[in-house]
Amino acid sequence: GLTLFLQGLEMALFPIGEFLAGALARKGSLIWLLLFSFGLGFGTTVAEPSLIAVGDEAARVMAEGGFIANEQDAMSSYARALRYTVAVSVGIAIVVGVFRILKGWPLHWIMIGGYVAVQALTMIAPEQIIGIAYDSGGVTTSTVTVPLVTALGVGLATVIKGRNPAIDGFGLIAFASLSPMIFVLIFGMVF
Questions:
Q1: Which candidate, 184, 180, 155, places its Cα nearest to that of 168?
Q2: pLDDT tier at 137, thresholds 50, 70, 90
Q3: Each residue's pLDDT tens digit, 38-59
Q4: What is the DSSP string of 132-154?
């Protein structure tokens, strides 16, 4: 099933993503490009089955630890808040990544800054949220998100002169994996 899914993505969604990214970049509509980027990141992450499972498991663990009420409503609310936190973080990460591609900023400096932030937040975040935060970064780079976000990055890098489709396309995936860790660590400190 996964093989057919990936074949369908390659035949249909990659070309569509590349076409949309290219069309938005050529028209010079930065606002629409960034809104599309956020929507793509947010939408694919909310639909990610792995994230739904991590959210449910995190809610169960937090309820057993006494951090939230051990009631179905409280656990559902916590899982939903965690899921939307991760989805917003991926949307923002894709916007930052697209802006980085457009401006030509070096990928490694942004990634280093992000990982320094993760390490700093890990030192002050509640112990119970750290594993959830790191898992959230991992589950956002799964079957739904990666192909669509990669298509956007490759499409943009293809139409913008001087950009490398491999580095820039997969740079978006790196941002999509890094930002949920930061946002979930902050989520754990706030809630």
A1: 155
A2: confident
A3: 998 999 888 888 888 889 989 9
A4: HHHHHHHHTSSTTHHHHHHHHHH
pTM: 0.86
Task: Answer yes or no: are the C-beta atoms of 86 and 51 closer than 8 Å.
Answer: yes
Residue with tokens 């932030």: 117
Write out pLDDT tens, residues 107-125: 889 999 999 999 999 999 9
Q: Residue 7: how many CB atoms within 10 A of its CB?
A: 10
Rg (CA), the chain: 17
Burial code (b: 16+ CB inside 10 Å, e: under 16) for 124-148 equals: ebeeebbebbebbbebbbeebbbbb
